[in-house]
Write the structure tokens for this entry.
Amino acid sequence: MTYTIIKIAITTILIVAIAEISKRSSFIGAILASVPLVSVLAMVWLYQDTKDINKISELSTGIFWLVLPSLALFISLPLLLKQGVNFYLSLVISIGITATCYYLMVIVLEYFGIKL
């Protein structure tokens, strides 16, 4: 239980730190947020928990393929906001677009024989 609390604390502190830094400098916040901290932490926690290199490899490969459709959020959200759409509505629409892109990516990958 202590180990789980430590994992949650470290992960939470990093996310809150990035949000706080972003208040002062969106550029530095963007740099920190663009570094795949969550992915790296997930791999570290998975390795610590399982010591299974194959699981790490599968996770890393899945992340690679799914980064592409995740970019739809970062394209659609600012476009919607610049059009004057309310933040929360823009966020919901962008998440919907991103989910659709994930779905399409999985279909395309399966067509080419790549299973995630």
